[in-house]
Amino acid sequence: xxxxxxxxxxxxxxxxxxxxxxxxxGVTDHAAHQLGDIVYLELPEVGAELSAGDVFxxxxxxxxxxxxxxxxxxVVTAVNEELADGPEAINSDPYESWIFEIELSDASELEGxxxxxxxxxxxxx
Length: 125
Known about the structure:
19% of the residues lie in helices and 34% in strands. It has 125 residues and is of the alpha+beta class.
């Protein structure tokens, strides 16, 4: 499994890439492999306020449908509309296929997430 250094990771297999006071979020390579072929992705609404742990959408694959949880709090500032028409991009390039961007309301929440090394150990268990 591919784990990218410099990102934050959640136990729900989301990644967070921080850029100033905003962050892009997506699904890890591990999750994409576990899900199988992704066929549908429900995107959050721009302007939606999310708290850490809130469901932001649903990912459906040929195997299952599962809720996706935001690992950080804030306001959704952008969504990746390309994934609405081509959610399978997550399977081919999960770290470039960001799902949404959020303006962080509490950057200290990042401290509760895992580093790349910690996430690698987590998925190896």
